[in-house]
Specification:
Rossmann fold; four-stranded parallel beta sheet; globular
Length: 121
């Protein structure tokens, strides 16, 4: 399966080496790494990251079938945006995987409920 990695670092001084190691552990025997997308100096709340935008565009054009990231928050820190991205990517036939954490919609929905309940207290 054609697979890509996505890394993000909030500052330009940070490295993505640990994210790369985690993603490499997730690469299956039938997976072929065909690309790496990296954003440096961007918050996980920022939706206009250049490599994230390119990742979504390439997902739509069928360049790969799987995205692996070290953890879901690397893609988005906002759970609602994460669910939106997951649904969009899945429409293109692309699977999301994380080395640490889950892209399971039930888990993400539970996270939203917990987050909202904390805000109302």
């Amino acid at each position: 399966m054609k697979t890509v990695f996505y890394y993000r670092a909030a500052t330009k001084e940070q490295t993505t080496e640990s994210q790369e190691r985690e993603c490499m552990k997730m690469l299956g025997v039938n997976d072929k790494l065909v690309g790496v997308y990296e954003d440096f100096g961007y918050s996980g709340l920022n939706e206009t990251r250049p490599s994230l935008i390119k990742l979504i565009e390439d997902s739509k054009s069928g360049k790969f079938q799987k995205i692996i990231t070290s953890q879901p928050s690397v893609l988005f820190r906002n759970v609602a945006k994460m669910i939106e991205l997951k649904e969009k990517i899945e429409q293109y036939g692309v699977k999301l995987e994380a080395a640490n954490g889950s892209f399971d919609t039930d888990d993400l929905t539970n996270s939203i409920a917990i987050h909202l309940s904390r805000k109302t207290k």
